[in-house]
Write a structure and sequence with these properties.
By secondary structure, the protein is α+β, with helices and mostly antiparallel strands. The protein contains 6 helices and 10 strands; from the N terminus they run αβααβββββαααββββ. It has a 10-stranded antiparallel β-sheet with strand order 1-3-4-5-2-7-10-9-8-6.
Length: 285
């Protein structure tokens, strides 16, 4: 079996130093659609180095990187075909506001391997800390088609009851045709997001947007519309990737405000509101 669950979970964590600067933050923000309109003061806090605020979802790429999805596939006990891999979900816990530039230690490991029958799910956990203590904890759920069925633990479902009533806020965000090409410059080089032939092999009609790009677009919408643009109020952010987004489409982001949290659902407008993010919660102060 290409996935040895016991070996993967028992493997020694990998620890390394990561570093980022304001240019990395600005590139990430542009990759998730910030800067429109370019002179809007609310957008300049994402794009101008003299007043830069770091959106917490930058943690998924800080230090160059493949956000657990690629790095997790090189861990002991894991040997899979990249064309069978999809990012199933993401959770992020923020311990302190992210600085615009920094150096930190990242420790990554396979926290769990679940058997979903027709697929396996790897949970790649990355914990990041600097000299002042923990910064963030990042869990990537990696969905590997065709690698389940060995009789292992199915794991938690992660499904939430749908929010009740009409959403408190609804916003739409256009995804540029070149959005995936720009976003991948932050470190996720999976050809699924750029190479038409690879995308066809993976079962898609054309390259799709990174799930984590949709993840960032959505968090920015919540911060800008519910949290008054204050990125420091975000405490955690979890989602399940429910469907693909194609560059050029429009995202419809519905928000339900709760005490200390925002429930979110995201869909693709042009495909009859096909769901793309589900079971999504932003916890905040």
């Amino acid at each position: 079996m290409p996935i040895d669950a016991a070996k993967a979970v028992a493997a020694e964590p990998r620890t390394g130093e990561i570093a980022w600067n304001s240019k990395d933050v600005q590139l990430y923000h542009l990759g998730i659609g910030a800067g429109v309109p370019a002179t809007d003061p609310d957008e300049l806090r994402y794009t101008l180095e003299s007043r830069l605020h770091v959106l917490p979802s930058f943690a998924t790429v800080a230090g160059s990187g493949s956000p657990g999805v690629i790095s997790g596939l090189s861990m002991p006990g894991i040997e899979v075909d990249l064309a069978k891999v999809l990012h199933g979900g993401q959770s992020l816990t923020i311990h302190r506001p992210l600085p615009a530039a920094g150096t930190a230690t990242a420790t990554g490991r396979i926290a769990a391997v679940y058997d979903k029958g027709k697929a396996a799910v790897l949970v790649m956990r990355t914990e990041v800390a600097d000299d002042d203590g923990p910064l963030w904890t990042n869990d990537a759920q990696i969905f590997v088609r065709g690698e389940g069925g060995w009789g292992g633990d199915r794991g938690p479902s992660g499904r939430l009851d749908p929010p009740s009533g009409e959403p408190d806020r609804v916003v739409e965000r256009a995804v540029r045709e070149d959005q995936a090409l720009l976003y991948r410059l932050s470190g996720d080089w999976n050809p699924l997001h750029a190479d038409p032939e690879f995308a066809k092999v993976a079962g898609f009609e054309r390259p799709i947007l990174h799930g984590l790009c949709t993840y960032g677009i959505t968090l920015k919408a919540v911060v800008d519309t519910v949290l008054g643009g204050d990125v420091a109020r975000v405490r955690s952010y979890v989602t399940r990737f429910a469907g693909a987004v194609y560059p050029g489409e429009t995202l419809r982001i519905r928000m339900w405000e709760q005490q200390g949290a925002v429930r979110v659902a995201v869909s693709a407008v042009e495909r009859d509101d096909a769901p793309v993010l589900a079971d999504t919660v932003v916890e905040h102060t």
